[in-house]
Backbone:
């Protein structure tokens, strides 16, 4: 939270029309970098079976750490989503009904969500039927088709694991709408965002297996509302940020007290991954928006291009990895995933499939289905 106050010497920028209707090019680049990191992590986890010695290109410890913890890029996606939600909707939220909002936001998420899980079922079910412990579970299928399952009431999506992010994001969109629709005072909203940030951090630290309080929810609450808070910081000069920080600190102390009461290891002794989550991930986002040299880096053509198809990459990359890992032995391809050449071919294939998904499913099929059901 102190990072927000340390930026007081930077110019406060207003929310002009261009910023409310157009994403910044540097955010496209940041989304592209995050998408690449998630691909690296799942490639390491599934194709390389979590063996650090198989990671291609370099054999240094830093490179291995990057691959092992690249899943933290999901936090960047949450921050970007929170920031862009404020950027695109804050000025006109009073004009949009709850039904219109859910149809637009939910529809854009749910259609590719269902299609990706159906494709995942086509890959997953034959593989299970050919295995020794083959089974078909209708409840599992219905759970995988529900955008209000994972993160809402538990469960998982075995057909396409990364789609848990979509379920949590849909929940966060609804919470954001309620806060901004019915609370007009910007300082009160900022305090609520801070409360969600600290509570989400507490969920991740303490651990909880209750509806809306899973670890994945904690990740979403903390980083999505950090993006929302940073948008308010840029555009609301009248907010008393010192007061907000004091309230957040008191709430954080309360969570620390709960931690000690239940006799869990003292939380000040964070692992380095926790420090990356708490400090480094938000700092990357803020630096991308505020520091010109990083802006230029994130605005490079390659990252911007990948960023524009990042949603397609996110929906499809694990499906492609599953298909290769499960079915390539049947075709006797004998792929050695630790080889640089194999990784490069798979990575390029993921980019191509992501591009096809983005422009076929998300830009054409999804709008038509959403418009049809919105009539």
Residues:
């Amino acid at each position: 939270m102190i990072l927000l106050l340390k930026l007081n010497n930077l110019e406060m920028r207003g929310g002009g029309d261009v910023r409310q209707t157009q994403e910044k090019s540097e955010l496209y680049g940041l989304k592209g970098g995050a998408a690449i990191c998630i691909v690296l992590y799942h490639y390491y986890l599934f194709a390389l079976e979590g063996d650090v010695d198989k990671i291609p290109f370099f054999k240094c410890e830093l490179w291995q750490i990057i691959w092992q913890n690249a899943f933290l890029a999901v936090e960047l996606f949450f921050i970007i989503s929170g920031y862009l939600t404020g950027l695109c909707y804050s000025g006109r939220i009073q004009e949009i009904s709850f039904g219109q909002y859910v149809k637009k936001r939910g529809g854009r998420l749910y259609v590719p969500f269902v299609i990706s899980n159906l494709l995942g079922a086509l890959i997953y079910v034959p593989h299970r039927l050919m295995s020794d412990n083959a089974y078909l579970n209708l409840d599992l299928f219905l759970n995988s088709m529900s955008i209000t399952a994972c993160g809402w009431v538990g469960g998982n999506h075995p057909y396409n694991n990364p789609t848990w992010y979509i379920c949590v994001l849909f929940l966060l969109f609804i919470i954001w709408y309620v806060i901004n629709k019915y609370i007009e005072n910007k300082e009160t909203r900022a305090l609520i965002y801070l409360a969600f940030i600290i509570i989400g951090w507490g969920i991740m630290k303490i651990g909880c297996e209750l509806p809306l309080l899973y670890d994945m929810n904690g990740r979403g609450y903390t980083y999505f509302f950090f993006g929302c808070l940073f948008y308010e910081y840029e555009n609301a000069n009248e907010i008393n940020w010192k007061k907000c920080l004091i309230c957040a600190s008191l709430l954080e102390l309360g969570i620390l007290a709960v931690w000690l009461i239940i006799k869990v290891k003292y939380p000040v002794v964070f692992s380095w991954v926790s420090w990356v989550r708490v400090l480094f991930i938000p700092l990357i986002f803020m630096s991308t928006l505020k520091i010109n040299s990083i802006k230029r880096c994130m605005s490079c053509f390659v990252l911007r291009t990948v960023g524009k198809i990042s949603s397609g990459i996110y929906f499809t990359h694990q499906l492609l990895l599953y298909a290769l890992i499960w079915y390539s032995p049947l075709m006797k391809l004998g792929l050695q995933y630790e080889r640089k050449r194999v990784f490069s071919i798979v990575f390029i294939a993921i980019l191509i499939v992501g591009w096809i998904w983005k422009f076929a499913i998300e830009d054409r099929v999804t709008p038509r289905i959403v418009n049809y059901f919105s009539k």
